[in-house]
């Protein structure tokens, strides 16, 4: 298995002990992946209770005390560092059952009956089955302005040392990360902030419509959207739509006002999702394979599976259609649904 982020931890926890003892684990980063290394200061968009329920859905952890999450109000959203701390505690007895290598896997090549994993250092390992849980990198756009890294923009302390309150900033994306960044910029005193969105409405809320909801101010749509903002992000969107944050403008990525805002900006931030970060995958003939993923089975190729941010499952949206199921509950459900075909 490649990758010890959230999905990688979940995958290992779902394996029976006899399979763990025959599992090679490769990770050149840290336990918890990017959530631990880059985004620990970010507040989750799920409550402690929701995260605990997802963890307890894994059979080996069904009755396990979750000391880190249980120390907080079950209705509050913890920092991602707390989730990672909890997973580290849970993984402590499991990792010694595996064979762990702190190496980066550069490529995975198919051979008859299995796969060869080649590390960046040149070592190779032959396995019968391989699982990729390597996450993703923030997606970037091509605007002629310096970009603030996503992990900096999401960390209020780091952001304060990166830019000045007089700087003009355009944030691309108004979902969970984008709204948190708008809040960070406002809190540090920036007075010219733009949140840029591509498709109307600019905000979608995961909640039923109520008379107090300000969604009518953006056209009367966006409530009860399964992909929308919730918890702290929803409160930020409410304040912006009601006009309570005059330093923040919300603009669609078209028209003269948007073009002027970009040209006047000192910095941009891209909070527009992620793209896969995976090793090179080669087929039997040595040709590079496109990583086409079956979200139902988790399969990429015979004997090769993928899970997590890079290879998520899907869920049916209440308003119709499907969407990638990103997040701890979705990762748990996807891995458990696919495990029978993998083992």
Tell me about the largest β-sheet. 5 strands, parallel
Relative strand content = 15-25%
Morphology call: globular
CATH class wording of the largest domain:
Alpha Beta
Pick out the low-confidence regions.
none
H and E string: HHEHHHHEEEEEEEHHEHEHEHEEEEEEEH
Q: Provide the CATH superfamily of the largest domain.
A: FAD/NAD(P)-binding domain
State mean pLDDT (0 to 100 scale).
93
Number of continuous helical runs: 12
The end-to-end distance, rounded to whole angstroms, is 13 Å
Task: Provide the spatial order of strands within the biggest beta sheet.
Answer: 8-12-9-10-11
CATH topology of the largest domain: FAD/NAD(P)-binding domain
* Multimeric state: single chain
